[in-house]
């Protein structure tokens, strides 16, 4: 069983940095390419709960269909945002790391060290 799980995008330099930091620390890491294996609505809700974030806190805008889908509308419900992220995983900000000390959206990338500190 892995110590950590990372929702990873191998094309993202921040995500690669965080994965390497976990591996360098000797952690066993389950790598989930969240765009190839998108999280379900239920998994997103659980992740948001662990992260202590509202859906907008995990919503990626840059290089995504955010604007085309009208996700900037403040009247959109959390349910609508979560459904959009489940359908279009590029909308999920990355990397997200789940570990024994909790979960963290590792932006900035150095946030991973908070999960590794003794």
From TrEMBL:
Reaction catalyzed: [glutaredoxin]-dithiol + arsenate + glutathione + H(+) = glutathionyl-S-S-[glutaredoxin] + arsenite + H2O
Keyword Oxidoreductase: yes
Root EC class: oxidoreductase
EC number: 1.20.4.1
Gene3D superfamilies assigned to the protein according to its UniProt record, in alphabetical order: Glutaredoxin
Superkingdom of source: Bacteria
Pfam family, one: ArsC
GO terms, molecular function: arsenate reductase (glutaredoxin) activity
Keywords tagged on the record: Arsenical resistance, Oxidoreductase
Family label: Belongs to the ArsC family.
Protein name: Arsenate reductase
Organism (species): Paracoccus benzoatiresistens
Classification of source organism: Bacteria, Pseudomonadati, Pseudomonadota, Alphaproteobacteria, Rhodobacterales
């Amino acid at each position: 069983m892995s110590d950590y799980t990372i929702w990873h995008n191998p094309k993202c330099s921040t995500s690669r940095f965080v994965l390497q930091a976990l591996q360098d620390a000797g952690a066993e890491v389950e790598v989930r390419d969240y765009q190839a294996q998108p999280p379900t609505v239920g998994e997103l809700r659980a992740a948001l709960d662990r992260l202590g974030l509202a859906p907008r806190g995990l919503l990626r805008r840059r290089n995504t269909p955010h604007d085309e889908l009208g996700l900037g509308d403040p009247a959109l419900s959390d349910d609508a945002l979560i459904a959009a992220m489940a359908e279009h995983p590029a909308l999920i900000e990355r990397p997200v790391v789940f570990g024994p000390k909790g979960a963290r959206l590792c932006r900035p990338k150095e946030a991973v060290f908070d999960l590794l500190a003794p």
